[in-house]
Design brief:
Elements (H helix, E strand, L loop, with lengths): L9 H10 L10 H15 L4 E2 L11 H12 L13 H15 L8 E4 L1 H13 L8 E6 L3 H10 L2 E6 L7 H10 L4 E7 L11 H14 L2 E6 L29 E6 L12 E5 L1 H5 L14 H13 L5 H15 L5 H5 L1 H14 L4 E2 L3 E2 L2 E2 L5 E5 L5 H9 L3 E2 L1 E2 L11 E4 L8 H15 L2
Parallel strand pairs: 1-13, 3-4, 3-5, 5-6, 6-7
Antiparallel strand pairs: 2-8, 7-8, 9-12, 10-11, 12-15, 14-15
């Protein structure tokens, strides 16, 4: 039962929740929670500990900004960009993949997208239409909820399971229980994982890759948090260790590489979709149900990407190209730039556990979960949706794990990026107050 002497004025929080129109605020989407918190902050003039949205909390690199300025001054704003991307960017995407994944992808199959969100939409539009007997995507969850919304909007079916109890050797039988039905077109997962921050091992990626080969399924590997498992140093171009990838074990893959988190470049909405050489050249006769050709790569560019946006902002492509080049040249250590997220997570998790909370996804196989961009937490005796609503009165926002495909309905996802070090005292005092009010 919420007490009315909460850190954020009870009546205002209650009013804004009611105004939202949500029957259960804990079931709100990320953007719906953002909207509610914005309104509460505006009216109360009090700053929340904002953990609901995965946005970068660091300044964008000058390398990208300067390259964009130079491109704008050269006049690119008056010209339509080519749908498949400017040549210099395509070259640097291919080079970046070789430098940090140790995988060869021809620049022909490397295209810019309006963020990874457009990349996943385009991937679904082509990968899920290669065979009329196959219905859609298998999500290895928990995951980014909007990708399922994309499938829903497209009318594609999807299936999902929470991978936490199926790690290691258990993954094979669980995956095969879905794939042997013959209805799965594509598999999608994020690595590192949003929201649990688990990281697949090479053995697990081999399982996924070999099953993709066996059942002729396309793997969509979402690398939104590229190299951000800070337990290993993936920052050196061309030097082991490399970012783990399913591409070591199958040619049936698509990479989604975001500039939002690892490069702190979210506002420019520029990301990358990269299609393996074999898949790019492959022909699927049934694609002609939707596109002018049966070629996978051609359908991706001149079918899906053309219809979705007809190209990516011209100057943003040059900004991304410059950052990728500097990273591959060893002049810009993009991973060092974001390690602060791991430092924040370590401190914030301790503040939660010191005040009666638990970490939900706490282990990565047989080792403690890494400190990174996200962590998950719960409070004894509360469901996730109850906890989310209760925390709003204490000036803390997050999202429920329910909407990510997680089976841990008691939990919430916290993003560390918007919580600066000067807010840690506020966070600690609010958590302490919460624990005093709800603890036994």
């Amino acid at each position: 039962m919420i007490k009315k002497d909460t850190p954020i004025k009870f009546e205002i929080v209650h009013e804004k929740i009611k105004e939202s129109g949500l029957e259960v605020v804990g079931h709100g989407t990320i953007r719906e929670i953002v909207k509610i918190v914005n309104k509460i902050e505006t009216e109360t003039k009090q700053k929340f500990i904002r953990m609901e949205m995965g946005v970068p909390g660091l300044a964008p690199p000058e390398i990208g900004i300067n390259a964009e300025i130079a491109a704008l001054k050269s006049g690119v704003a008056s010209k339509y960009p080519m749908i498949e991307g400017v040549t210099v960017l395509k070259k640097e995407i291919s080079r970046f993949i070789k430098s940090f994944l140790d995988i060869d992808v021809d620049k022909e199959g490397c295209m810019p997208t309006v963020g990874s969100m457009q990349g996943s939409m385009a991937a679904f539009l082509v990968a899920n239409r290669t065979d009329h007997n196959k219905k859609g995507t298998l999500f290895i969850d928990p995951g980014f909820p909007v990708q399922k919304q994309q499938c829903h909007v497209l009318g594609h079916e999807y299936e999902t399971f929470d991978v936490y109890d199926y790690r290691g050797d258990k993954l094979k039988d669980k995956l095969e229980s879905f794939l042997k039905k013959g209805t799965v077109s594509s598999i999608l997962y994020s690595n590192p994982n949003n929201p649990a921050w688990i990281c697949f091992t090479d053995e697990e990626l081999q399982i996924i890759g070999e099953l993709a080969n066996k059942y002729d399924i396309i793997v969509i590997e979402d690398l939104a948090y590229f190299g951000m498992d800070f337990r290993k140093d993936y920052s050196r171009p061309g030097v082991e260790p490399f970012q783990p990838t399913v591409a070591k074990y199958t040619d049936n893959y698509i990479f989604l590489i975001s500039s939002s988190k690892a490069f702190s470049y979210a506002g420019q909405r520029v990301g990358t979709i990269a299609v393996s050489d074999q898949l790019f050249k492959r022909r699927y006769p049934e694609l002609k149900r939707y596109y002018s050709t049966d070629g996978f790569g051609y359908s991706m560019i001149y079918g899906a990407l053309y219809a979705l946006s007809s190209g990516v902002t011209h100057s943003a492509q040059y900004g991304l190209a410059a950052m990728l080049k500097a990273a591959s040249d060893g002049e810009f250590n993009f991973i060092d730039s974001v390690k602060i997220y791991g430092d924040r997570a370590k401190i914030m998790k301790k503040l939660f556990t010191d005040n009666g909370f638990n970490i939900v996804y706490d282990m990565d196989m047989d080792v403690p979960i890494a400190d990174g961009f996200y962590f998950t937490f719960s409070y004894p005796g509360m469901s996730g949706v109850e906890l989310l609503e209760n925390l709003l009165y204490y000036g803390i926002s997050a999202i429920a794990l329910d909407i990510t495909g997680s089976k841990r309905s008691e939990g919430l996802r916290a993003c560390v990026s918007q919580t600066s070090e000067d807010q840690f005292k506020d966070l600690e005092s609010r958590l302490k107050k919460f624990n005093e009010d709800f603890g036994e």
